[in-house]
Amino acid sequence: MVAVRRATVPLLLAGALLLTGCSDDAPAAPAPAPVVTRTVTPTPTTASPTSPPPPSPSSSAAVTTAPPAAGKVVVLDPGHNGGNGSHPAEINRPVPAGRGQTKPCNTTGTSTNAGYPEHAFTFDVAQRVGKALAAKGIRVVYTRQDDTGVGPCVDQRAAIGNEARADAVVSIHADGSDSAGANGFHVAYSSPPLNAAQGEPSTRLAQTLRDTMRTSGFSPANYIGANGLSARTDLAGLNLSTRPVALVECGNMRNAAEAARMTSAEGRQQFAAAITAAIEAYLAS
Ligand code: ZN
9 lies in a domain? Predict the structure, then answer.
């Protein structure tokens, strides 16, 4: 969750603070995680050993067409991190958040009522999205490489996207609203934009995410934003980006039905498939 409210206390100790949402898109952390890049070459189509030979040796061989998005760079930013809760001093350290503001380096994120943490959800979904994109020839860069570290800080996460010259940056979160009946996803984008990338490109990325989430069967949030979109001035990861960027809050972890979906691998694959399709559609537009 990005936050409207933020929990900066270790989840297991948070008690009443668990009422807060995932708080903050800011990723956090002292030691900037090394950026790992993976490039996957699409598997060329080959005839099986038992297939008959091509019709005519003189005809030109089948041309393998690269996917439209091949060669593009996508930065995936799974919100929070598994070690944040046990390192309050590090993640509470103020860092630049854009628009003259500061924010804590990172936050713990939220969890389901049963204790399944947002950081585990976001990490798993990002991995699923990244694998799918890499299989299409897209270069994928993650802002964190595991779910046991601390941070990186929100400003560092933005820097990773900027330095990678990403064609698209997508932060992945889940919200934690205790408002009765609150459910649904929403996509945040920087507004008013602070640079050209935050203008039309980021708005289009956010709208494409919203549209694809909706056509994939997810309902827009009924408690925040409008029609699944939320214009924000306070999210560091968005404010500090010089690349097209959007942040998706996949749903409300405090809602029983959405919590069940997020807790299951099958459900996470559904979120990942929708986000993957959205990124591919954006890159092709
Ligand atoms: Zn979050």
Answer: no
